[in-house]
From TrEMBL:
It comes from the Bacteria. The lineage of its organism: Bacteria, Bacillati, Actinomycetota, Actinomycetes, Micrococcales. It comes from Kocuria rhizophila (strain ATCC 9341 / DSM 348 / NBRC 103217 / DC2201). This is ADP-dependent (S)-NAD(P)H-hydrate dehydratase. Belongs to the NnrD/CARKD family. AMP binds at K498, G499, A500, T501, T502, G575.
């Protein structure tokens, strides 16, 4: 499990330590951690540090400070290091340490003509030549800053130190930093791109948790140029520098994962104290690379997580497995309403996945043709043409392949109104959104849209006056966490938003031990939750567990994310497979409120619906790579599900 937090949450945690004057110690621990990863990347490429070259892109704040200190440490280790300063300021102590270690300092200018000072034009190669020629150890070692017992530099500490950046801000003092930056050798975008390209390692220390918006100006141009070249050269099979990001990839929002401008996609990111939300949700996650969280001493002061990342090992550990006393009923019966004459395959794929995920029993409701096809593939499925209120199940799955078929659509509607928990997928999503006009759904109803389907849900909600405007698919893709939360808040349902990273948002306030960092405004007029207002006759079902759970309030949101799925999942039918898996785990947790407690206290009570959704998405992701990286047609995926769960 990775607990991810916002930048603001991290700042709150560090504040008491900054007040005690420990800012420099924090930065040094961060820089040491960053250095370790950089060294590992360099050694992986060259075997040794000597003779390797690194370029550090340095921003104006403390993220740049971390980068400069790491550059100094790398230099002392024998790496030729060039710093490219991207702002008009740079962290004072970091810059001094870097210089004293023998690092070469350049500053990025818009172009050579506009740049000033020596080397503004025609001398762009100067820094690179200096760096390449810098002898390891030159200016390093004894010339470095003194450190205290914790490894913190005493050099430069005191007034205006790291801890004062939000009050006095050493990076902004008028005397040395601005002058030091101005004195650095200018390098234009093309020259800097050459520097980067010639390096073995690029360290991205432009912006961290203090960023607002994406990269701007020359550094944005530089990153764009570098990424274009990386794309071209990757296709040509040429070498490329490794990229390590300091804290978070510059231009990715630590709080939301949004990346409004160009970003330098990292091979690895080293973050400090806690993962940030932007590491575990799209699109930020896709730029992050391998994530390392380095302890810097703020860990005991951290507040609650904004997003819990459910990892694959969590899925395998928490997946509900039968015990000797279990029966098929205690494990959970899943009712399925899926398929229509034009999409018969969906019924086959979701029932097959549910069976392979270990459902106690799968009951399929549909016409004779659909039943025959389901039975051909999965003879263990119990099939009938009953209506949902006629059968006794622990949970429902409704919607896959339900298009243009009135009798299946009527069953879908009955499932939406039923008291039991349900996965509402594909053809059930519009009907679920429409039903919100009458009553909120409750967190035991799990909506499973992709971005396009969520956009349609917002159209319905907008049509009912429940939100101010519709939301385009591209807006959702740019900030999926936000829109999943909004959808959960407005519908009252658990929302699983599909994509390269799956995010899950659930309007849960009652899960023990859970206090979400995120608090959205409550809707102006609270409307009744369907789970309280009734629906199906409770007597028709013994599945009352969800009704016993405390009703959720709309002002808190449990947020989870799941990654690691193969992009080969982007194929028609893999959503049907996911839906079947989700149904199986929902049917199990329906009457086992604490079944997923192993994930954390937040996964109990009402939190179990989101937890179950995360488990299902995690198993789906595991199945996508069960036999390596390659095509996984949904029928293979369903088989893989069973393989993943089978212990040798
Ligand atoms: N938390 C901890 O415990 C520890 C934190 N540590 C480190 O501190 C980092 C946070 O440092 P930070 O607060 O100085 O912010 P940071 O990200 O360097 O940038 C702020 C500067 O950038 C500027 N700027 C903003 N947006 C911009 C844009 N779009 N484009 C261009 N410029 C932009 C903005 O200037 P402004 O625009 O406001 O004039 C401001 O000067 C954190 O990520 C971690 O690496 C470690 O040392 C270990 C301990
Ligand atoms: N690029 C990707 N990387 C990883 N997983 C993906 C990617 N694209 C789609 N997926 C996953 O594949 C599934 C596709 O679901 P969906 O779009 O509903 O497909 P369908 O409706 O055709 O069955 C989802 O679980 C989604 O998260």
């Amino acid at each position: 499990m990775i607990d991810a937090r916002s930048g603001e949450s991290i700042r709150r945690a560090e504040q008491p330590l900054l007040d005690e004057g420990q800012g420099d110690a924090l930065m040094h621990r961060a820089a040491r951690g960053l250095t370790r990863e950089c060294e590992a990347q360099l050694r992986a490429g060259s075997g040794a540090l000597g003779g390797t070259r690194a370029v550090v892109l340095v921003g104006p704040g403390n993220n740049g400070g971390d980068g400069l200190w790491a550059g100094a440490f790398l230099r002392r280790g024998g790496v030729a290091v060039v710093a490219v300063l991207t702002g008009s300021r740079a962290h004072e102590a970091g810059l001094e340490a870097f210089r004293r270690a023998g690092g070469v300092v350049t500053r990025l200018v818009e172009d050579a003509v506009r740049g000033h000072g020596p080397g503004a034009a025609g001398e762009q190669g100067g820094a690179a030549r200096d760096a390449a020629g810098a002898s390891p150890g030159n200016g390093a070692g004894s010339d470095g800053p003194a450190t205290d017992g914790t490894g913190a530099a005493t050099h430069g500490a005191g007034a205006g130190g790291h801890g004062s950046r939000r009050t006095g801000d050493r990076t902004a003092t008028a005397d040395s930093p601005a002058e030091a930056v101005a004195a650095a050798e200018p390098v234009d975008v093309a020259g800097a791109a050459e520097l980067l390209w010639a390096a073995d390692l690029v360290v991205d220390a432009v912006l961290g948790t203090g960023a607002s918006g994406g990269l701007r100006g020359p550094v944005a141009d530089l990153v764009r140029e570098f990424e274009e070249r990386r794309g071209r050269d990757a296709r040509a099979g040429q070498r490329r520098p490794r990229v390590v990001a300091c804290d978070i990839v510059s231009g990715v929002s630590a709080d939301t994962g949004q990346s409004p401008g160009p970003v330098l996609t990292a091979d690895a990111t080293v973050t400090f104290g806690s993962a940030k939300t932007g590491h575990v949700v799209s699109p930020g996650e896709q730029a992050t690379g391998a994530l390392t969280v380095v302890s810097i001493g703020i860990e005991d002061l951290l507040g609650p997580a904004a997003v819990h990342r459910v990892e694959h090992r969590d899925v395998l550990e928490a997946w509900p497995r039968p015990t000797a006393t279990d029966t098929k009923y205690s494990r959970g019966v899943l009712g399925v309403v899926a398929g229509a004459p034009s999409y018969p395959g969906a019924a086959i794929m979701c029932t097959q996945a549910a069976v392979n995920a270990g459902a106690g029993m799968v009951r399929f409701l549909g016409d004779a043709a659909a039943r025959a096809m389901v039975l051909t593939r999965s003879p263990e499925v119990v099939c009938s043409d009953d209506q949902p209120w006629d059968v006794h199940v622990q949970a429902w799955l409704a919607g896959p392949g339900v298009v243009g078929d009135e009798s299946q659509a009527a069953r879908v509607q009955a499932v939406i109104e039923a008291a039991e928990p349900a996965v509402l997928d594909a053809g059930a999503l519009d009907a679920a959104a429409r039903s919100v006009a009458d009553a909120r759904l409750g967190p035991h109803k799990v909506l499973t849209p992709h971005a396009g389907e969520l956009s349609q849900i917002f159209d319905w909600l907008h049509g009912f006056g429940l939100c101010e405007a519709g939301v385009e698919r591209t807006e959702i893709e740019a900030n999926p966490l936000h829109w999943a939360r909004e959808a959960a808040r407005l519908t009252g349902a658990t929302v699983l938003l599909k994509g390269a990273t799956t995010v899950i948002a659930s309007p849960v306030a009652s899960a023990p031990g859970h206090r979400a960092e995120y608090a959205a405004a409550a809707p102006s007029e609270p409307r009744p939750d369907r789970e309280q207002g009734g629906g199906a006759d409770p007597a028709a079902s013994s599945s009352t567990a969800h009704r016993e759970a405390s009703p959720s309030t709309p002002d808190e949101c449990l947020c989870l994310s799941v990654g690691g799925a193969s992009a080969w999942l982007a194929t028609a039918g893999s959503g049907d497979t996911l839906a079947g898996i989700l149904g199986t785990v929902l049917a199990h947790v329906a009457e086992h409120l604490d079944a997923l407690a192993g994930l954390g206290p937040w996964a109990c009570g009402d939190g179990r619906w989101a937890a179950a959704a995360a488990l299902g998405a995690g198993l789906h992701a595991l199945a996508s790579r069960a036999h390596g990286e390659g095509p996984v047609p949904p029928s293979v995926l369903a088989e893989n599900v069973r393989a993943v769960l089978t212990r040798p």
